[in-house]
Amino acid sequence: MGRGRRSALAAAVTVVCAVTVLGASGTAFANAQQPTRRPTPTASASSSSSPSSSPDAPASPSDGLDKDLEAVRTKLDTLYHDAAVATEAYNAAEEKSKKQSAEIVDLARKIVDGQKKLDRLKDRAGAAARAQYRTGGLPPQAQLLLSDDPQSFLDGAGRVLEGEHAAKGLIQEMTRTQQDLQQYADDANDRWEQLEANRKEKAGAKKRIQQRIKEAEKLQTKLEKRQRDRLAQLEKQAAQRAQTAWLDTGILKEVRGKASEAGRKAVKFATAQIGKPYEWGAEGPKTFDCSGLTSQAWAAAGRPIPRTSQEQWKQLRHVDIKDMRPGDLIIYFDDASHVAMYVGDGAIIHAPRPGRTVTLAGAGEMPILGVVRPDTD
Predict the structure, then answer these.
(1) How far apart (Å, rounded) are the C-alpha atoms in residues 242 and 81?
(2) Which residues are catalytic?
(3) Stated pTM of the model
(4) Which of 13, 130, 159, 262 is found 20 to 30 A from 149 (Cα to Cα)?
């Protein structure tokens, strides 16, 4: 390898060390979202060496190159994993903000309607007071003594009692309406505070995402084309080894489930998105992130599901891997930071990470946390 190419790779490895140190301060954000563990590398640096290598064989230049590129690959995996964690945190905050905004609008409508109701009640109370004023405000006993027609008075006495009862009910209704208005106002204030907290959470997540993606892109720009091509080969080989190891467990001999009608619709939607770019926070139609793809696929199938991979893992029904069927969702990594749709024959469709497109891949290429089923058919 020429001096220029070697120096470029050395610079990239230096960046790996630098971003490792710089990235330590940002780890707290991902941890704050929920406990997480770094993704276990699908292959070690040593496993990517030539099969003919042995402890006694002399090291070749390519051995050193692959070792350095494995360090780069591992660091890129970590950076993109951190970005994925932050992306799902951003998506969760976005969903909360939408819900809280809708609640604020609903509360505002209730406050307006309540104020109109209170105004009507006040008008009725005013009318009753004016009517009493016109009669001189005399008590029923005085009206009886002054009346020329006792029978007429007695007939009207019942109406007086009804009026008093109505007035009492009016006062009670006014009191309840005022209490409701105060409660609506308090609830709206709480929602505003929550909305502001989510706004800050979204801003922090966005900053984290952009920082990690920028670090990853900077690391890759330090590599020359030949080194980037070799890095891509190493990534592909690592994925193939992980998939092969997963298949060698014999898992597919047990997986025989058939897709439900809704599951087929979800798979059809996901398949139609193959080739579209990954974009964090995106739900289509032109770009997707991992959970944006799965949530929109099942929405197209008529079964709305939670927006984020973590909530999909928490809220949807868990099924054993041997019982999974096309349309089920496979959740990856201990922190449930990635999700893909199982489409059968050991394959998934997913939106991998920035710089990639929605693609077909092996279900065992990443560490599987578990499987969830959006429908019950």
Answers:
(1) 17
(2) 290, 338, 350
(3) 0.62
(4) 130
